[in-house]
Amino acid sequence: IDSPLAVHFEQENTDISNTAFRWITCLMVRDIPMACCIRLWDTLIAESAQAGGQQMGALASDCGSPGFEALLVYFCACFTAYFSARLQALDFEGITFFLQSIPTDGFGESEMDVLLSEAYILKSMFQQAPRHLAAPEAR
Fold first, then answer.
1. Could you say which of 12, 19, 44, 125 has the lowest number of CB atoms within 10 Å?
2. Sequence-separated (6 or more) residues with CB below 8 Å from residue 94
3. What is the dihedral of CA 129, 46, 35, 72, to 10 degrees?
4. Residue 5 contacts by C-beta under 8 Å, 6 or more apart in sequence?
5. Which three-class secondary structure state does DSSP give residue 2?
6. Can you point out the beta strands (E) in 1-139?
7. How many CB atoms within 10 Å of residue 107?
8. Dihedral sign of CA atoms 19, 22, 27, 33 in order
9. Over its length of 139 residues, how does the chain's per-residue pLDDT go in tens digits?
10. In this predicted structure, what is the pLDDT of residue 59?
11. Which residues of 1-10 are buried (b: 16+ CB within 10 A; e: fewer)?
C-alpha cells in the first residue's frame, strides 16, 4: 500500500517481520494506548463474528477467524503507512529504534477510526484476491 516506503525499507535492508510479528501476537497492546487497543479489539471481534456468520456451513475448525486475522494484518499495514514520511527520513538504525518505540501517545479515537477504515477498505478490496500478496515476479 506504500511502495516508496517498501523501497526505502529494501534500500536500508530493513526487515519489519519481527515488528509485525510482535504487533500481531500482542494485538498491538505494546504499541498503542489502551483505549485504542480496546477500539481495535472491538472491531476485530465484530469482524470475526461477521465473517464467522457468513461461513455457518463450514466446520468451526475450518473457519478460524478470517475476519479478525485479515483485518489485523491490514491494520498493521495501514499503521506502518501512517508513519511513512517519518520512516522514510530514517536510516536503518533510526527505523529500528522508531519501530521499537512508536510515538503513539497522542493517538486517539480519530486516528483509530481512520486506520480501521483504511484497513477495512483494503480487506474488502483484496481479501478474495490472494495474489496481491505475491512478489511482483511471481505474478
1. 125
2. none
3. -20
4. 80, 81, 84, 87, 88
5. coil
6. none
7. 19
8. negative
9. 899 999 999 999 999 999 999 999 999 999 999 999 999 999 999 998 887 666 555 444 444 457 888 899 999 999 999 999 999 999 999 999 999 999 999 999 999 999 999 999 999 888 777 666 666 665 5
10. 46
11. ebeebeebbe
Cα-based distances in Å from 21 to 24, 27, 62: 5, 10, 23
Which of 42, 123, 31 is closest to 82 using CA atoms?
Answer: 31
Length of the chain: 139
According to the model, what pLDDT value does residue 65 have?
A: 56
Instruction: Please state, in angstroms and rounded to a whole number, the distance separating the CA atoms of residues 70 and 74.
Output: 6
The amino acid at 3: S
Cα end-to-end distance, the chain, whole Å: 17
- CA distance linking residue 45 with residue 65, whole number of Å: 9
Region of residue 117 (left: phi > 0; alpha: psi -120 to 50; beta: else) = alpha
- Between CA 40 and CA 74 the distance in angstroms is 12
For residue 15, the 8-state DSSP code is -
